[in-house]
Specification:
The chain is an all-alpha fold. The protein contains 17 helices and two strands. It starts with 7 loop residues before the first helix and ends with a helix.
């Protein structure tokens, strides 16, 4: 029978009240917060696997069309999501300080500001959608599907923004389960909508006993299915935040007040994250630009291998989300030593999990890429690059989880510089050199990626071992 004193709620209350923690309790807190987030991240990647497999059966050009604009799609989603960090970090620290009313005030400001921001980003994406594929590739056969896919995905930005900030605020309060359950639900919805929208009407079952309606939209259908899912889940996530959350739900006696200091702090925290997303995702776009001349098989292999690899590193992002919550609440409670201890424990968990997933990826690379495409050339190339990347997973985990800990502490500027330097100084020049002058093609791009991720993880661990990432908060005690 579970001990109620070891529930995540009880452990977080112990943290806020200044109670002591032994090693077992720290580990239990880390696991209880990380497991739901890991499950949600993995389920999201399973959804992407199914999506990619559906599109992959439309042919190499269909997969390449999505792969061509995928990195730009990540760029817009990344800088939209960055806007949430300035509010979720403050909310976690307020809850750690047992100032739930202050956290709710930050929540209301954050919802309005980020929704407005997402609408502006949607308008920008709408303007460039018709030109983007031509900027990235000379293959005219990809332009139409790539442009329509990007436009439809960008029309879901406001829903994605609300999903991101509502889920982030629930996690900041210590509620990891609700966002996880809704994200798992989104996987099932996305699969259903995609099945109905991508393929034409047909039959399934023995001797075709069940007729399945279908719109037959192809690549645009994949984007439309995801967009509809984002709106459904975004609305549900907002409802859970505003009406069901114990700490964050609306109170009738708490009017909306825009606080200049809190808005400035949100901007100060979010700008480095936003710039980081622009530069890092911009580097992904440049990687696509390097890969594009290698042909449709290389583009498709690159895109599908990224999807396949993500199944291995998404547990790290789940642990990173949990780390942000724990560190944020520890800082709010003025428990600096506990924050450092929990940061290292989460980093160790991430490295352990992703070392295991890296080994599995190396062994099962042919099966992982085989699920995504029936094209033999894509399977062969995808297997080769996944096995290269497997060696980077442990140190990639260190970078992911340490970055989550830094954000929970409000340390966003220096880690952003570290990510920028790693991508633009190491990965991109090395990718170009190995793929073109050295003639290694896509394999060279992934060797460069492996080297860069190992270097990034090393410098993040070096920063985690120091005290500067909590220095400013120490001085405010």
């Amino acid at each position: 029978m579970a001990n109620p004193e070891n529930s995540s709620e009880a452990l977080l209350k112990r943290l806020q009240d200044g109670g002591s923690f032994n090693a077992k309790q720290k580990l239990m807190l880390a696991l209880k917060l990380a497991f739901p987030a890991m499950l949600a991240q993995v389920s999201t990647i399973v959804m992407e696997y199914i999506d990619a497999s559906m599109v992959g059966h439309l042919g190499a050009n269909a997969t390449a069309s999505i792969g061509l604009v995928a990195t730009t799609t990540w760029l817009f989603f990344g800088i939209t999501m960055a806007a949430t960090s300035g509010f979720t970090i403050q909310a976690a620290q307020r809850i750690g300080a047992k100032d739930n009313r202050g956290a709710r005030g930050i929540m209301k400001q954050g919802l309005i500001v980020t929704l407005t921001y997402s609408l502006i980003m949607t308008a920008i994406a709408f303007v460039i959608s018709g030109f983007l594929p031509q900027w990235l590739s000379s293959d005219a056969a990809l332009y139409s599907d790539a442009s329509r896919y990007f436009l439809i995905m960008m029309l879901s930005l406001p829903a994605f923004q609300m999903n991101s900030i509502a889920g982030g605020l629930l996690q900041a309060s210590g509620d990891m389960k609700t966002p996880s359950v809704l994200n798992i639900l989104s996987c099932f919805l996305d699969v259903v909508f995609n099945a109905l929208l991508i393929f034409p009407s047909g039959t399934i079952g023995i001797d075709g006993v069940f007729s399945l309606p279908g719109a037959g939209l192809g690549v645009p259908g994949a984007a439309l299915g995801t967009a509809i899912t984002e709106y459904v889940i975004g609305i549900l996530m907002l409802c859970m935040l505003l009406f069901r959350s114990k700490e964050m739900r609306l109170r009738p006696n708490e009017p909306l007040v825009f606080n200049r200091t809190e808005l400035k702090t949100a901007l100060k925290l979010a700008i480095p994250v936003g710039v980081e997303q622009i530069l890092v995702c911009g580097a992904y776009v440049m990687s696509t630009y390097i890969v594009a001349p290698l042909g449709s098989i290389a583009i498709a292999s690159h895109s599908l291998s990224i999807t396949a690899e993500s199944l291995c590193y998404m547990p790290g992002y789940g642990i990173s989300s949990a780390a942000s919550t724990m560190i944020g609440q520890s800082i709010g409670a003025k428990r600096i030593d506990l924050a450092r201890s929990l940061a290292w424990m989460n980093a160790g968990l991430g490295i352990g999990f992703m070392t295991c997933t890296g080994v599995l990826m190396y062994i099962f690379a042919p099966q992982m890429i085989g699920l995504l495409s029936p094209v033999p050339e894509i399977r062969e190339l995808g297997t080769a690059v996944l096995r290269i990347e497997a060696f980077a997973e442990p140190l990639y985990a260190a970078a992911i989880v340490a970055n989550g800990a830094f954000r929970g502490a409000g340390d966003t500027f220096v880690p952003s510089l570290m990510n920028f330097g790693s991508m633009w100084i190491i990965r991109l020049p090395l990718s170009w050199y190995l793929s073109a002058p050295m003639g290694m093609g896509l394999r060279g791009v992934w060797i460069a990626m492996c080297i860069e991720l190992c270097a990034r993880g090393t410098i993040f661990l070096i920063r985690l071992s120091g005290k500067r990432w909590v220095k400013k908060l120490d001085s405010g005690k």
